[in-house]
Amino acid sequence: MRFDRKASRKAWFEAKKFIPGGVNSPVRALQGIGETPLFIDHAKDVRLFDIDGNCFTDFCLSWGVFILGHNHPAVVEAVHAAVDRGSGYGAPTVYETRLAQLVNQHIPSMEKVRFVNSGTEAVMSALRVARAYTHRDVIVKFDGCYHGHADQLLVSAGSGVATLGKSSSAGVPGGFIASTISIPFNDFEAVERLFRSQGGRIAAVIVEPVPANMGVIFPLTGFLSFLREITIRYGSLLIFDEMITGFRLSAGGAQHVFRIVPDMTIIGRIVGGGFPSAAFGGRAKIMDMLAPEGDVYQSGTLSGNSVAMCAGIATLQKLSEGGFYYELEARMSSFMLILRKSLRNRDITLNRAGSMFSLFFGVKSVRSFQDAKKTDREQFARFFRHMLAHNFYISPSPFEANFLSIKHDIDEMSRFVDAVASFH
Prior knowledge:
By secondary structure, this protein is of the alpha/beta class. It has 16 helices and 14 strands. The strands form 3 sheets. It has a 7-stranded mixed sheet, with helices on both faces. Strands 1-2-3-13 form a 4-stranded mixed sheet. Mean pLDDT is 93; it is low at 157-167.
């Protein structure tokens, strides 16, 4: 299929005059897959409409945000009501407390919560608290896990950093990352060796419990339990970065699925109902390190913005309705069944966790970032263009997950599988 892209290309050339690369987040440029950006006009349910009038069935969902589909009526109504009252106040509202209560009900390990505006901000703040609480400096992360673009975390990162083929970023002094150690995910021995040699210096281990920024990679049996045990043994904190898995794998996130209780948790994306919002939280004793209770300073002029809070409340209320996750799982299971059948005898590996999935090209098994990096990027780029030509929008990186929403139906799933099957 051919579709007109003239308006999007014109908009991109105009944007590049005023915005670096013409985009405000590098992966949107589609540079790594030989395409130019789509400029979106509007969205509804599972469809994106660009400024050329093309319609795409969306399996990216703004990297997992729109689990209810785009423009859900309950969220839209809540947002309109919030805007009518005022877009923000620079002072507390009861909506912050209400959303914090809902978060705690679903994720009990988050005894206290602080809202911020982005995942990067949430992670950066959580690590500051962890260092203050433990009186230690070293942070341990895992190769391919992406925790935002704070200087100290751009070490062997996934997401867009991996697409660019860089392990870090220009402009990051060596001293900023000297206290961050990155080791292979799913490697029990590497974790054990590191703690034996430096356990007394490690403030925290931060991990995506199910990584989705190097493609979806499932933790080996017992790996997360092992991280919980060893951090307790050495007096370090365990931080789950559930920016993607929070309210996606279950109402209680990955920690509910795996029955692991971390010391701190990062959530975002879904919690803001599509608006800029994220949160970090954990045990009350740890969170009370934050000012004005404690000595760890963190602030944000727009943190807890009432519009985002009301969007988040409306979203979590819909997710709390009986049978939501059962229905989502049923749809995803049916989808994966027919997709796996279509991939038989193909040199394509399908990884899936809950309603997230990734396709890896030219590699048989993907259990770590080292495995993921073996994927055939040129083949993925051709695949992305192929799917776009069939009016499907997938995550535009071989190191990102794709997502299902409650609004995807069997017809859309079947057409997606047919498009995959026709790719050669």
